[in-house]
Every structure is written in structure tokens, then in C-alpha cells.
Amino acid sequence: MDRPIQQKIVKNRAGSAGFLCLLIFLLFTASPEKVSAQGEGIYITGGLGLPELLHGGVHYRGGLIEAGGSVGYMDLGDNEIFSAGADFFYHFNGYDQFASPEPWYLRVGAFYLKDTGRDIIHNYLYANARVGRDFPLSNRFLVKFDLGLIVQLLHEETEKESYNPAFRSLDVELPAAPSIGVKILYRL
Fold first, then answer.
1. Angstrom distances, CA of residue 184 to CA of 10, 29, 141
2. Would you write out the chain's pLDDT as a tens digit for each of its 188 residues?
3. Is the peptide bond before 51 cis (omega within 30 degrees of 0)?
4. Which residues, 6 or more positions from 52, have their beta carbon under 8 angstroms from its beta carbon?
5. pTM (predicted TM-score)
């Protein structure tokens, strides 16, 4: 009786974790000169991005600091991808009459992705660093757009019992990649 083959491959990128820690340290050691109540509150979010995918979440903004989390999903035929993550934002520079006295922001965070394919399950952990801007639509609605870089911290690969190496798809390893996102926020 043949036993199904299960193989696990784990790749760790310890240097990437140091990069994320440095960005978080810089974010929280900045000393803002002013903190405004305008734009503060809880927001419901929805958007599209990499690594967030098509996602929904919740954000809280207090002064110049904002924190949020989201879960996302995307079906690509043979692959279903799930994402979950959390981000911290530091707002700075400028003024806008509707949503934020500081429309520009730095964003750092971490995202987990699970890519379930026909024969292999990939689990990823990414660090995320971006710069972006808020574009208010009204005093309740806001659009965020940001660009940056994602760095792979961890990759785990598990072959399913039905694994057939003859049909394995091309697997591209990128330790770092561009990151982009757009989301709509509604302040409660």
C-alpha cells in the first residue's frame, strides 16, 4: 500500500524581520507637534491591494496615529487566496477640510497569505511598508491610495495528498515586490 507523500518546505527571511522592526520603531518614536481631533474615529473599510487582495476591515484613528486590520479573499480559478493583516499608519503634512489635517501617511504592517492550489498549499508572511495619501470625498467618506514594498518573511509549502509533480505550476520566488493598495473608508 502506497502512502501519500507530504512534504513541507519552510523558508525564513530573518533579515526582513529586522527591516520591519526598524520601520515600526521609526514610526512610533516620531514625536508629533500637534494632535488634532478632526478625522479621529472608527472606520469601516473595503478595497483592493497587494497583499490585501479584495478585502474588508476596520480602522481606528486617534490623532496622527491610525491602526487597522483586514481580511481578504481572491479566487483565481485553480487557486483560492486568503489574506489577513494589520497595519499602523503615521499621518503627516498638509491639511484637508473634510477628513484629515494630515493627508499623507507612512504605513507599516504584516500580512499572512494562504494560497490553496490544486496540489500545493502555500503560506506566506509579509512585511509591508508604504507611503500614501488620504483623498476625502466628504466628512464621512475617504479614499486611501498607497505604494510601497512588501518583503517576504516566511514561506511554507505543503503538498496535498493528490500532489502530482508532472502538473506542478511555475513557482516564482520573490523575496521583495512592489505593493499597492486603494481602499474606501466610512467613518462611523
1. 35, 28, 7
2. 444 444 455 555 555 555 555 555 554 444 443 334 457 899 999 999 999 999 999 999 998 999 999 999 999 888 899 999 999 999 988 765 554 568 899 999 999 999 998 888 999 999 999 999 999 888 889 999 999 999 999 999 888 776 666 555 555 667 899 999 999 999 99
3. yes
4. 70, 72, 83, 85, 111, 181
5. 0.74
Task: Specify the amino acid at residue 42.
Answer: I
Nearest to 84 by CA among 52, 108, 107: 52
What's the CA gap between 23 and 19, in Å, rounded? 6
State the amino acid at position 30 in one-letter form.
Answer: A
Task: Kindly tell me the burial class for residue 152, based on how many C-beta atoms sit within 10 Å of its own C-beta (0-12, 13-18, 19 or more).
Answer: buried
Instruction: For residues 117 and 182, give the distance between their C-alpha atoms in angstroms, rounded to a whole number.
Output: 26
